[in-house]
Design brief:
Layout: H1 5-9, H2 13-33, H3 38-49, H4 52-68, H5 78-97, H6 121-126, H7 131-140, H8 143-154, H9 159-166, H10 170-197
Length: 198
């Protein structure tokens, strides 16, 4: 006598239904916990890639990765979890498509003197600095600086959350953020001076 498929494989209708319900519950939970942070994910990807279409592609890939590994998500801050995946996906994409942007970062080469007389970006904005100039200055920052500026200033994340996302110590986040602000201030001053000279 031959055994049926269910007997051979151990698959029963009840087991199959249970697995289907479990997958559906996971999908619903994923949507509730993770997809609410899509705007933040896109924002980070957009600033890191500096291109709308590339950012959309990166976020889509990051969401697929997040869904694939969602079963291992242990709870906690889902925004930080998703942004970590988006950041890592962005860096993978940048390495594959724009490796020159991730060239080794030289602290001395990119250092801006702390005592230089530059204006605060907020002051520049209040003085009427063009938003396009601010965007241009932000996009010129090295990716490591752009990343911390976006996460801190636009996404309002804590140093601890940024450190977790970037996979670096909090001190490195603080240092990068300080240098990013200094470079941004210097570049904005240059752009505004050039605009006024025209």
């Amino acid at each position: 006598m031959t055994r049926g498929f269910a007997e051979k494989t151990g698959v029963t209708l009840r087991a199959w239904e249970g697995k289907r319900v479990q997958e559906q519950n996971q999908r619903v939970r994923f949507e509730q916990v993770v997809l609410v942070h899509l705007d933040a994910a896109y924002n980070l990807a957009r600033w890191l890639t500096r291109n709308d279409q590339d950012a959309e592609d990166v976020v889509q890939e990051a969401c697929l990765r997040a869904y694939k590994f969602f079963a291992s998500y242990q709870g906690g801050n889902s925004r930080t979890w998703l942004l970590t995946i988006v950041r890592n996906t962005c860096y993978t994409w940048l390495r594959q498509n724009r490796g020159h942007e991730l060239a080794a970062f030289d602290e001395e080469l990119h250092h801006v003197a702390a005592d230089c007389d530059v204006l605060n970006p907020e002051v520049l904005f209040e003085r009427g600095a063009n938003l396009q100039l601010l965007k241009e200055a932000l996009e010129e920052l090295p990716v490591e600086f752009r990343e911390v500026m976006i996460l801190r200033e636009l996404e309002d994340l804590s140093y601890k959350e940024i450190a977790r996302i970037a996979g670096v110590p909090i001190g490195t986040v603080m240092s990068r953020l300080n240098r990013a602000r200094q470079r941004l201030q210097t570049r904005l001053t240059q752009l505004i001076d050039a605009e006024e000279a025209e």
